[in-house]
Amino acid sequence: MSYLEYNVPRVPRGVAKVFYLNWALVLLLTAVSAVGFLMLYSVAGGDLSRWAEPQMKRFAMGMVLLFIVAMVPIWFWRNMAGLAYLGSLFLLVLVELIGTTGMGAQRWIDLGFMRLQPSELMKITLVMMLAAYYDWLDVDKVSRPLWVLVPLVLILAPTFLVLKQPDLGTALLLIMGGGAVMFAAGVSWWYWGVVVAMGAGLVSAVFYSRGTPWQLLKDYQYRRIDTFLDPSTDPLGAGYHITQSKIALGSGGWTGRGFMQGTQSRLNFLPEKHTDFIFTTLAEEFGFVGAFSLLTLYALIILFCIHSAVTNRDRFGSLMTLGIAATFFLFFAVNMSMVMGLAPVVGVPLPLVSYGGSAMLVLLVAFGLVQSAHVHRPRGP
Amino acid sequence: MKRSSRDTATSARRVSRRALVLGGLQLGVMGALGLRMRQMQIEQADEFRLLADENRINMRLIAPARGLIFDRNGRPIAENAQNYRIVIVKEDAGDVDEVIARLQKLIHLDEGELERARRELDRRSPFVPVTLTDQRSWEDIATVAVNAPALPGITPDVGLTRNYPLRDDFAHVVGYVGPVSDYDLSRMDDDDPLLQIPKFQIGKTGVENKLERRLRGKAGTKQIEVNAAGRVMRELGRDEGTPGSNLQLTVDAGLQNFVQARLALGHSAAAVVMDVRDGDLLAVGSAPAFDPNKFVRGISSADYALLTENMYRPLSNKAAQGGYPPGSTFKMMVTLAALEMGEVTPDETIWCPGYHTLGNRRFHCWKRGGHGHVDLEESLQQSCDVYYYELAQRVGIDKIAEMSRRFGFGHRFDVPMSAVTDGIMPTKQWKRDRYDKGWLVGDSLNAAIGQGFVLASPLQLAVMSARLASGSAIEPRLIKSVDGVETEVKGGGPLGVNENHLRRVRKAMYAVSNSRRGTAYGSRIQDEALALAGKTGTSQVRNITAAERARGVTSNADLPWKRRDHALFVGFAPYTAPRYAVSVVVEHGGGGSSAAAPVARDILLYALHGKLPPLESYPTSQRQEIEEMQRTLPLSPLDRDGGGRSRA
């Protein structure tokens, strides 16, 4: 890999790099995380030490990582992409073998100081891998079937492992995040037509396979789909989460019940109130104003990323930024849809807000990569 | 690998185009999310807010304090006592069995209670307090409190429960409360939500039962916030409800105590004391009695069996429920009916040979040799049966019944006690309806001496003597005031009986007690100002066959208790200015003059003095015996000397 490709003399060096960081993005990430601290403090009933404090520590740690990653030249990361992808894949296999079983799914490896979810890592390394792949590939070959097959394998291998855990939410995120990179890289529209058709076929296959020996999803996943389609069928059972979540959200009104006044989440009507359902607490306590503000913050983050990608002439940096933005987008879009009753409950956290160590760290590292691409972009003619 | 700059430029353009498409898609989805928020949080906000409130706000009932019951002098008969409970919360206790074992080393715990509590602990959520034991003493509570550190999850608690400080005395009149049962609910047709509270106490008998709605009060409510598991988080609002009405009864607790103690000297007896002027019931006694507090706590089956198997029927309120043949105490009614019909004059004499012949049957006088020529006064004074056989034959049962009804026979008085009987005042029609048989003259003769079909309760007999004494149709009254508002005195209108006839009858009753030949002379009151007028009665509960009569009637003392005669006495005092009327029935007590009249006199004297009467009120020959009786009578200390209360 040539160092010269990047027009090195024009790339900022040393401490000067700090001035080239996308500071607005850093500010936005901090703002979203701060919303998270506030909500974690609230759902713990005014207890800082329960969730908010560990989350803050992880945020601080993540921010340090973000800066370190951002300072490292982007070509280093491009060169590391293959290794990172293989490493994540290895960890996914490892989790299958030794992972601690929790909540009915094997998802993490206990590192002692934190529980690492390789699937979280994989979301980013897959994006890096695909970006590097398309950076390496001749632009003319992008839509050739053989060269389309390679990234498909790269996506489906970890997806298969994640599905086995089973973690439907992450599997979908991997497919869609990887798909976004492929789309951005310029894979022909024809393929996307085929994908849409196949998607429809898969959905019907999923439905028709129910109850047969080759059933594609687990029973609880089917039940989640059932309750998503009609939550009222089981208001105290599986539909409970959705119904309660909608009640919390809807009862927020314009400005909400006020900080720490959310009755639904405070009174434990809400499940997983500090993780997957934290958005309902925000919506209940701060109402439409609060919920829409968070959505706006997210939208700004996406816009900054897209802007950075569009203005970046480096193919790797651009594609990776788009992929990370897409993954980030999928996180909050799926989570919000889920708590608002627009999507089945699939267990996707609200990025940077939900309580959770690996997700927070991985996301900030990912934005570190985005910053690195931003700082080390090719400049000049 | 080196890329040409053209390559890079083309690729960058393509990436930019696709990036914009991606960005557009994402913005579109975000817009949809924003719209969804708007729809839920603004358009449907009210609907969801309502659902949220339903989710979290729970109504809990607050049991109101039950109304108190006092006697006429303001002495508490039924009160709400602190009920010390010991409560356990499973989640605080940790190892429940260990904690209970430790508790058992400190205080005694009933195994049955414990079993029930364990079952409840299994059933309820871990944060719900479960009562381990209640009705504990203050010492037990103190012991638990002192050892609190060793007893996690265990707390002493206090609630209200009914207490009857006078114990047995008002067991029948006031009755008792107990936890509401499914049977009560099915029977009551009462949708008061309070009844749904587990172990809520409702009146089961007596005044407690009859005035249940007044005593119970209105439920209060508290709004509490609960979480999804039902745990109470905080109280949002509270409405205390209305406590039950306080009742003041017409009864005098001191007199009642005396009556109960005096009656208890016999095996099974009842007495009613009534104010002649306004019908106030001053004492309604029935012996033996029981401790109503046992029922409040939930009586043990052994204790309950003891009560139900007792042949003296302690659970029955004999004063109001018991129907007894009134015996000779009925003779006043026959006299008045005959006088009013003009079938006899007070001075006409009738010959008593010791029997009265009707066809080929002989109706015997209690005195085998007969009384000879007797007029009205002599006949009543000596209780000559033949005189009344003759009168009854002249007047006929229907006229006797009509007169008796004016005095309350056959009528169920409206007093709030359980199972008040209306007794039986037979007529020709009644017998036809009941037995489908014609009335016989012999039936009238039996009725004339208060036997046969006639049945009356001690309450009815007391009303009769009060009406005889006052000449007005007074009604018995048990509730003096409700929440300080005096209840109406009912009745008091004219009886519609010739006052001259009444005067003759009263005079004859005076003779019963104060003339040497009177059947109750032995139970006279020595103090002329307080002199007693009355009538004894001895009613058979068996037929005396001709053969037995020929052998000589077996004396009561030689008969088994169940077959002995009932002893009765009705009367009033003072004769000159009637104040109190009394009736006494001693079940299977033998003769009215020996078993019932002394009791009635003692009760009247206590009522007149408002305390144990001075010995001077008694005939000299009886004073020693009376003194002994007064000394040994198990009165509550407060009532021995009247307790310093103002007299009624």
From TrEMBL, chain A:
Compartments (UniProt record): Cell inner membrane; Membrane
Record keywords, A-Z: Cell inner membrane, Cell membrane, Cell shape, Cell wall biogenesis/degradation, Glycosyltransferase, Membrane, Peptidoglycan synthesis, Transferase, Transmembrane, Transmembrane helix
Pathway note: Cell wall biogenesis; peptidoglycan biosynthesis
Example of a GO biological process term: peptidoglycan biosynthetic process
Main location (coarse class): membrane
Transmembrane domains' residue ranges: 20-44, 56-77, 83-104, 146-163, 170-192, 286-310, 322-346, 352-370
The EC number(s) this enzyme carries: 2.4.99.28
Reaction catalysis annotation: [GlcNAc-(1->4)-Mur2Ac(oyl-L-Ala-gamma-D-Glu-L-Lys-D-Ala-D-Ala)](n)-di-trans,octa-cis-undecaprenyl diphosphate + beta-D-GlcNAc-(1->4)-Mur2Ac(oyl-L-Ala-gamma-D-Glu-L-Lys-D-Ala-D-Ala)-di-trans,octa-cis-undecaprenyl diphosphate = [GlcNAc-(1->4)-Mur2Ac(oyl-L-Ala-gamma-D-Glu-L-Lys-D-Ala-D-Ala)](n+1)-di-trans,octa-cis-undecaprenyl diphosphate + di-trans,octa-cis-undecaprenyl diphosphate + H(+)
PANTHER family recorded: CELL CYCLE PROTEIN, PEPTIDOGLYCAN GLYCOSYLTRANSFERASE MRDB
Family the UniProt entry places it in: Belongs to the SEDS family. MrdB/RodA subfamily.
Protein name: Peptidoglycan glycosyltransferase MrdB
Species assigned in the record: Tranquillimonas alkanivorans
Taxonomic classification: Bacteria, Pseudomonadati, Pseudomonadota, Alphaproteobacteria, Rhodobacterales
UniProtKB/TrEMBL annotation, chain B:
Region (Disordered): 616-648
Domain of life assignment: Bacteria
Keyword hit for Translocase: no
Pfam families: PBP_dimer (PF03717), Transpeptidase (PF00905)
BP GO terms, sorted: cell wall organization; peptidoglycan biosynthetic process; proteolysis; regulation of cell shape
Gene3D superfamilies: DD-peptidase/beta-lactamase superfamily (3.40.710.10), Penicillin-binding protein 2a (Domain 2) (3.90.1310.10), Penicillin-binding protein 2a, domain 3 (3.30.1390.30)
Gene Ontology molecular-function annotations: penicillin binding; peptidoglycan L,D-transpeptidase activity; serine-type D-Ala-D-Ala carboxypeptidase activity
Compartment(s) where it occurs, according to its Swiss-Prot or TrEMBL record: Cell membrane; Membrane
Cellular component terms per the entry's GO annotation: plasma membrane
PANTHER family: PEPTIDOGLYCAN D,D-TRANSPEPTIDASE (PTHR30627), PEPTIDOGLYCAN D,D-TRANSPEPTIDASE MRDA (PTHR30627:SF2)
Name of the protein in its database record: Penicillin-binding protein 2
Source species of the chain: Tranquillimonas alkanivorans
